[in-house]
Amino acid sequence: MTRELKTPYLAADVIIELIDHPGRPIVLIERMNPPFGLAIPGGFVDRDQESVEQAAVREAYEETTLTVRLIALLGIYSNPARDNRLHSASAVYVGEAHGTPRAADDAKAVQILLPEEIPAPLAFDHDLVLADYRQFRATGRVAPLRGCLVIP
Amino acid sequence: MTRELKTPYLAADVIIELIDHPGRPIVLIERMNPPFGLAIPGGFVDRDQESVEQAAVREAYEETTLTVRLIALLGIYSNPARDNRLHSASAVYVGEAHGTPRAADDAKAVQILLPEEIPAPLAFDHDLVLADYRQFRATGRVAPLRGCLVIP
Questions:
Q1: Beta bridge partners of B10
Q2: What pTM value is reported for the model?
Q3: Backbone phi and psi for residue A61, each to the nearest 5 degrees, phi listed first
Q4: Which residues of B17-28 are buried (b: 16+ CB within 10 A; e: fewer)?
């Protein structure tokens, strides 16, 4: 059955809040590889190796050198058009970390930004994700459920 | 890059609350295919075709004939050992529907059960999912984030 089974590629991203910086800013990375631009740290989940939460913590560490504690699942972003390379579904978490990030692995540089300072457009659908995050930060509510099907 | 990229197979399940039945019971299905047993309705997301939410609504419809409105993302269940066929990650939603389910597609039969009536063990890790759902139903809190990594 696995030979024919094609599901979206699964990724995990973390919006990292720097809890000992004034105003609790977040970390964005400048991507080393296409699509270029600023993005939320994260990457693909390794099959047979790890859970989605583990992938989120691992990728955050690899790209920023921060040890992140996940605090919420913001949402799953899986519109087939969100990444023009392939159909990816990303589980986006909110996490918190102490210290100061350093760029590593797929990250060319890191930026530390308050939510209201974040420029647009970001890579992928991360403008949408950040809009949901600002809402979460203001209200505690996670991302709305989108794109439900009209049954024929 | 897609040739080498192996991420968990992505599924979507829905805990369907029957809002016009006394006590707001939920729907479980008896599986037609291995692993046998009772399970939450759901199935794999079709790559390039649909979002995870769309897959959840489609699968709920295919297996129960109910048109479901998703109300919350309970959690993502992705322990590599949760399904002994392959590494699957399941996005589990809570949804609500009117009417009475009928078994179809991969479902051999449906059962309508109150949360406290649900037998164990269910297929996959659905006992864990139902425990999280009972907590959600009692408190409004979604599933806890589990299995985070200890960074070396």
A1: B89
A2: 0.94
A3: -65, -45
A4: bbeebeeebbbb
**Closest among B30, B95, B133, B114 to A151, alpha carbons compared:** B95
Q: Within 13 Å and on the Cβ side, how many CA atoms surround B81?
A: 1
Q: What is the pLDDT of residues B67-113, one digit of tens each?
A: 999 999 999 999 999 998 999 999 999 999 999 999 998 889 999 99
Spatial contact of A93 and A70, defined as CB atoms under 8 Å apart: yes
- A142–B61: do the CB atoms touch at under 8 Å? no
- Provide, rounded to the nearest whole percent, the portion of chain B with pLDDT above 70: 94
Could you give the ipTM of this predicted complex? 0.93
pLDDT of A67 higher than 70: yes
Q: Which domains does chain B have, with CATH numbers?
A: 15-139 (3.90.79.10)
Structural element, H or E, at residue B121: none
Residues of B in contact with A47 (CB under 8 A): 6-9, 80, 87
Q: Which residues of B touch A6 (CB under 8 A)?
A: 46-48
Q: Who's near A36: CB < 8 A, 6+ residues apart?
A: A30, A123
Contact A47/B85, CB-based, under 8 Å? no
DSSP assignment string, A46-81: PTTT--HHHHHHHHHHHHH----EEEEEEEEE--TT
Question: In whole angstroms, what is the distance from residue A20 CA to residue A35 CA?
Answer: 31
Contact B54 A149 (CB under 8 A): yes
Chain B positions touching A48 (Cβ under 8 A) are 6, 80, 87
Q: Place B152 in a pLDDT band, splitting at 50, 70 and 90.
A: very low
